[in-house]
C-alpha cells in the first residue's frame, strides 16, 4: 500500500503464508523472528499489512491464525509481514479472557471444526482482540462450515423436543426440551445477558412458526472450560424460559439417560438440527442417524489432541459422510428416543476417522436435576412399571426416573442384590419414604419424631409420608405424614455429579409408637470408625438384580450383608469418594444395595453406621456401594433434630466430645483462653487461644471448611457477648484418624482467625506445656466448656468448670485395655468413682494444670463413668507440631 493515509473503507488482501525457516532466513540479519510468530508474503512484495492494521486479523478459511504485528517496510520484496501466531498463545488467551467458545468448538491451531457460526457472520470490525473479548471470536482455524451432513429433512413431530436457541432472534444453537420450562444445551452456546437470547419451539423452521419463548435464566456448568487443545470440558448448560412450553405433538420433553448409563457402541443414535448442509445453511430441520463409537476408539482418534475429556461420548461412521456440525451445537443426540448426548465438538465435519463428540448426559444427570430444581416434571417421566428399577449413581428412584439400560454403568436404581426377604421385626428401624403412596426411598427411625435418610431423596415442595412397622411398602404398619425436613445445608452435587453431604432428616407429624416392629436405631458416635472387615447389614425395597422374586414377595423388604471396605480400596475402585462417606461390598461383587434403597440403613451390630447413597454399578466386582458416614455427621444430626434419640447414650465405642459433668459455672475472666467454635451460631466444640491469631482444638472438631466456622471469644455465654472471629485457615494433624476401636489418634488441630484477638482480661493466650514436660499423677487439672452437664444432656449456654485429678498411663491403659489401650500422645484424668468429667460439647477445650495448657479434650467412654477416665491429647507430645504449624 502507498502512503496515501488511512482509508475510510475497510480493506482486504490475500497473502500466502510462508515457512518459518524461509521467514527466519529473510530476517537473519535482524536476528531472525522470535518464537510464537509466523509470516506471510508474496516473494515479489506488493501486498502486505501496514500501519493502522496492527492488531488486525490474519485468517485462513475464516479462522484466526495470526495477529498483525510487524515487518520491514510495507509490501517490500524479501521482507515478509510478521504476525503473532495465535496457536502459540491459545492458553494465554483463554486464561485472560474466559471467552465462551460459542460453537461446536474445536481447538486451536489443530484444525478443530468450530460450530455455531452465526455469530461470526455478524462480525464487521475484524479486530482480533476486541472480537475475542466480546465472546464473538473468529473460529480458530475453522476447517469447514458444514452441518447435519448426510441427513434428511425432518418434521418437528419426529423430534418434538428439538428447539432453536437464538441470539438476537437468529439461530445460533440447538437445544432439547427437558421440562415445561427448561431447555438443555451446550455450555459453549451461552454467554452474555439472558435478554439477548430466545428459544423457538414447535417448528421445523428455525426462523418461522412455532412459539418464541424469552430466556429468564442461563446456568452454565461451573466447570466449563477448554483444554490446551481448545476442546470444551463440562460443555453443558441449562436455559429456563417463559412462558412455559405447552406440550403437544410438536413440543414435548425428552426423557434423559440415567446417570452413568452407557451408550453402547454401535447402537444407532439420532441427531437433529439446523446447522449447515452440504449445500449451505439449512432452514428446515435436518435429522441423521449415526452409530455410537466406543470411548476407546474415540480416544484413539483424538489422541494427538489429548484424547476426549471425561463426560463425553462419540458417534461416527468409520468412513465419514454423516455428522453434525456448526449450528447443531447444543442439539440432541438421542438413542431409543432418550437424550444421551449434546452436540459439542469434533475435527472437521463428517471426516473419516474423526468422530463427532457429544456431552454425555448420563455423566451430568444429577447436575441437571439439582440445577433445574429437580422437578418431577422433567421429561424423565417415571414409568410406573419400572419406577423401582432405575439405579442412577445416587441410588434414588425419584432421581433415576428413567429406565436404565441393563448395562448401565452409573445407574442408580436397582436394588438389594443378592439378599433375602426379611421381617420388619428384624430391622424395626427401617421405614419407606413415599410419594403419593409409592415407595421412593428408604430411611431409618432415630427417635419418636425423626427419620434419617439421604439428601438426594428429599425434594422441595414434595409431600412425603412415612410407612413404618411393615416389611411391605404397600401395606401394613402405620402411615406418618411429614411435618418438616432438613437437608444438610452444604449438600451439593460436585463436578462429577457425586453427592457431598448426602444426609437429611424428616420429622413426622404423628410420633412413632414403639413396639416390636417400630424402634429407633442407635447411631455411631461422632468420629467413630466403621472397622474394615466388619459386617454391615443393608435393607431396602429396591430391585433384586437378576433374582426373580417369588409371587407375593415383590414388595417385601430385602436384607443383605456386606463387609466394610477400607477408604483406600474404595478410592481405588471408584476413583474418588467425597469426605464423610464409607464403602461396603465384596471384592467379587454379587451383593449390594441399589436404587430404591437410597436413604436406607447400613447397620453394624445393630447400630447405624451409614446411609445408602450411591455407587458405580450394582453388585459388580470392584465397585463397592458408597454410604453417608453417620459418625461424620453425628453432631449435625444432634443439632438439627434436637431429638432424644438413643445416640445420646454415650456407650462404647467412644464419643469424641463430651462435656463438663459435676462442675459449676465460671466466668470468662477465670479462663480467658477458652473459646467456642461455632457453625451457624451453634457451638459444637471448644478451643484454646494460643496467640493473637491461633486457636488450638481437637482434630475431630476440624472437619469443616474454614468459611463455615466462627470463633466466639471473650464471653462465658456460648451464644452472645464477646467477639466473633471468622476462621481463615484450619490445619488438622496430617496423621489424624480413628483406630479400629473408634478411638481418635493424633487428635489435634489449629485454626487461624482472620481478625486477631484483642488480648485483655477476657481474651488471653495460654502458656503451653513444653515438649516432654509432664505432671505428677494426682495433681488436679481444670477442664472448662459448654458441653452438656450430664451424660445424654444438651449443651449449656453458660461456661462450666470442673477439677479432676490426673491418673497414670498404666491406670488409663488398664481401664481401656479391652479397647486396645490408649494411643501415644494422650493423657487421662478422672476420679475413680466417676461423677466429674468432660463430655460432648467440650471437645477441643482446655485441660490446664497450674494455669498452663496440658491437654485438649478428646474422648472417653460415656461421661464421668466409674473406671472410665476422660482422655486428652497431650500438649507436650504435640508441642513441636504446634510450633511448626503456627510459630507459637
TrEMBL record:
The keyword Hydrolase applies. Keywords: Disulfide bond, Hydrolase, Membrane, Protease, Serine protease, Signal, Transmembrane, Zymogen. GO terms for biological process: proteolysis. PROSITE patterns: TRYPSIN_DOM (PS50240), TRYPSIN_HIS (PS00134), TRYPSIN_SER (PS00135). Residues 1-98, 148-373, 416-642, 660-887 form the Peptidase S1 domain. Gene3D superfamilies: Trypsin-like serine proteases (2.40.10.10). GO terms for molecular function: serine-type endopeptidase activity. It holds the Pfam family Trypsin. Belongs to the peptidase S1 family. This is Transmembrane protease serine 9. It comes from Fopius arisanus. The gene is LOC105267934.
Amino acid at each position: 500500500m502507498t502512503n496515501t493515509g488511512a482509508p475510510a473503507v475497510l480493506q482486504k488482501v490475500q497473502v500466502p503464508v510462508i515457512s518459518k525457516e524461509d521467514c527466519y532466513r529473510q530476517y537473519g540479519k535482524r536476528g531472525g523472528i522470535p518464537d510464537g510468530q509466523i509470516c506471510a508474503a508474496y516473494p515479489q512484495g506488493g501486498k502486505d499489512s501496514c500501519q493502522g492494521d496492527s492488531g488486525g486479523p490474519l485468517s485462513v478459511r475464516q479462522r484466526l491464525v495470526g495477529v498483525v504485528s510487524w515487518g520491514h517496510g510495507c509490501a517490500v520484496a524479501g521482507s515478509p509481514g510478521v504476525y503473532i501466531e495465535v496457536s502459540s498463545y491459545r492458553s494465554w488467551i483463554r486464561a485472560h479472557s474466559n471467552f465462551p467458545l460459542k460453537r461446536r468448538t474445536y481447538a486451536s491451531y489443530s484444525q478443530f471444526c468450530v460450530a455455531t457460526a452465526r455469530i461470526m457472520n455478524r462480525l464487521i470490525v475484524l479486530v482480533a482482540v476486541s472480537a475475542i473479548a466480546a465472546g464473538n471470536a473468529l473460529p480458530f482455524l475453522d476447517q469447514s462450515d458444514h452441518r447435519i451432513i448426510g441427513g434428511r429433512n425432518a418434521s418437528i413431530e419426529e423430534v418434538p423436543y428439538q428447539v432453536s436457541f437464538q441470539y438476537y432472534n437468529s439461530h445460533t444453537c440447538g437445544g432439547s426440551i427437558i421440562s415445561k420450562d427448561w431447555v438443555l444445551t451446550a455450555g459453549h452456546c451461552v454467554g452474555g445477558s439472558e435478554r439477548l437470547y430466545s428459544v423457538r419451539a414447535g417448528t421445523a423452521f428455525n426462523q418461522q412458526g412455532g412459539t418464541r419463548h424469552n430466556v429468564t435464566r442461563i446456568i452454565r456448568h461451573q466447570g466449563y472450560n477448554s483444554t490446551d487443545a481448545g476442546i470444551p470440558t463440562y460443555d453443558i448448560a441449562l436455559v429456563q424460559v417463559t412462558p412455559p412450553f405447552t406440550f403437544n405433538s410438536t413440543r414435548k420433553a425428552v426423557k434423559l439417560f440415567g446417570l452413568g448409563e452407557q451408550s453402547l457402541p454401535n447402537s444407532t443414535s439420532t441427531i437433529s438440527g439446523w446447522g449447515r448442509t452440504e449445500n449451505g445453511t439449512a432452514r428446515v430441520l435436518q435429522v441423521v442417524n449415526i452409530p455410537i463409537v466406543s470411548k476407546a476408539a474415540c480416544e484413539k482418534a483424538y489422541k494427538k489432541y489429548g484424547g476426549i475429556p471425561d463426560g463425553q461420548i462419540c458417534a461416527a461412521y468409520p468412513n465419514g459422510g454423516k455428522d453434525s456440525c456448526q449450528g447443531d451445537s447444543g442439539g440432541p443426540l438421542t438413542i431409543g428416543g432418550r437424550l444421551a448426548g449434546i452436540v459439542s465438538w469434533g475435527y472437521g465435519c463428517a471426516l473419516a476417522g474423526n468422530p463427532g463428540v457429544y456431552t454425555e448426559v448420563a455423566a451430568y444427570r444429577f447436575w441437571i436435576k439439582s440445577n433445574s430444581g429437580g422437578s418431577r416434571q422433567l421429561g424423565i417421566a417415571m414409568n410406573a412399571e419400572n419406577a423401582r428399577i432405575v439405579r442412577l449413581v445416587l441410588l434414588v428412584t425419584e432421581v433415576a426416573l428413567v429406565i436404565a439400560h441393563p448395562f448401565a454403568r452409573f445407574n442408580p436404581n436397582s436394588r438389594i442384590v443378592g439378599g433375602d426377604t426379611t421381617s420388619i421385626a428384624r430391622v424395626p428401624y427401617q421405614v419407606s419414604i413415599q410419594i403419593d403412596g409409592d415407595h421412593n426411598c428408604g430411611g431409618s427411625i432415630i427417635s419418636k419424631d425423626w427419620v434419617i435418610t439421604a439428601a438426594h431423596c428429599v425434594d422441595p415442595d414434595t409431600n412425603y409420608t412415612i410407612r413404618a412397622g411393615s416389611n411391605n411398602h404397600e401395606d401394613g404398619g402405620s402411615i406418618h405424614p411429614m411435618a418438616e425436613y432438613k437437608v444438610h445445608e452444604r449438600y451439593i452435587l460436585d463436578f462429577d455429579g457425586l453427592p457431598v453431604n448426602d444426609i437429611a432428616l424428616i420429622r413426622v407429624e404423628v410420633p412413632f409408637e414403639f413396639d416390636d416392629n417400630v424402634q429407633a436405631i442407635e447411631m455411631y458416635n461422632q468420629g467413630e470408625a466403621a472397622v474394615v472387615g466388619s459386617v454391615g447389614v443393608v435393607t431396602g425395597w429396591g430391585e433384586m438384580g437378576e433374582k426373580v422374586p417369588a409371587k407375593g414377595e415383590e414388595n417385601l423388604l430385602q436384607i443383605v450383608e456386606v463387609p466394610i471396605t477400607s477408604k483406600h480400596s474404595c478410592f481405588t475402585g471408584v476413583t474418588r469418594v467425597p469426605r464423610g462417606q464409607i464403602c461396603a461390598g465384596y471384592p467379587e461383587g454379587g451383593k449390594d444395595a441399589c436404587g430404591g434403597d437410597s436413604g436406607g440403613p447400613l447397620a453394624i451390630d445393630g447400630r447405624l453406621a451409614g446411609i445408602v447413597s450411591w455407587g458405580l454399578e450394582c453388585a459388580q466386582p470392584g465397585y463397592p456401594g458408597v454410604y453417608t458416614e453417620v459418625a461424620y455427621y453425628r453432631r449435625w444430626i444432634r443439632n438439627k433434630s434436637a431429638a432424644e434419640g438413643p445416640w445420646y447414650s454415650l456407650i462404647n465405642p467412644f464419643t469424641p466430645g463430651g462435656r463438663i459433668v459435676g462442675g459449676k459455672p465460671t466466668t470468662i475472666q477465670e479462663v480467658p483462653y477458652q473459646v467456642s467454635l461455632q457453625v451457624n451460631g451453634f457451638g459444637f466444640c471448644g478451643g484454646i487461644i494460643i496467640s493473637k491469631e491461633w486457636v488450638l482444638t481437637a482434630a475431630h472438631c476440624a472437619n469443616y471448611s474454614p468459611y463455615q466456622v466462627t470463633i466466639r471469644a471473650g464471653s462465658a455465654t456460648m451464644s452472645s457477648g464477646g467477639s466473633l472471629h471468622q476462621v481463615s485457615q484450619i490445619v488438622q494433624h496430617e496423621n489424624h484418624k480413628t483406630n479400629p476401636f473408634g478411638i481418635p489418634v493424633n487428635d489435634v488441630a489449629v485454626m487461624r482467625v482472620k481478625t486477631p484477638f484483642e488480648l485483655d482480661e477476657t481474651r488471653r493466650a495460654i502458656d503451653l506445656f513444653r515438649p516432654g514436660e509432664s505432671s505428677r499423677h494426682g495433681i488436679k487439672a481444670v477442664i472448662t466448656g459448654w458441653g452438656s452437664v450430664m451424660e445424654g444432656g444438651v449443651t449449656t449456654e453458660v461456661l462450666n468448670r470442673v477439677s479432676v485429678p490426673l491418673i497414670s498411663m498404666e491406670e488409663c491403659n488398664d481401664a481401656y485395655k479391652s479397647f486396645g489401650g490408649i494411643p501415644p500422645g494422650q493423657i487421662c484424668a478422672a476420679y475413680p468413682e466417676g461423677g466429674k468429667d468432660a463430655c460432648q460439647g467440650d471437645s477441643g477445650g482446655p485441660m490446664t494444670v497450674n494455669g498452663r495448657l496440658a491437654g485438649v479434650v478428646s474422648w472417653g467412654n460415656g461421661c464421668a463413668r466409674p473406671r472410665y477416665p476422660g482422655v486428652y491429647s497431650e500438649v507436650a507430645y504435640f508441642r513441636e507440631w504446634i510450633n511448626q504449624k503456627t510459630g507459637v
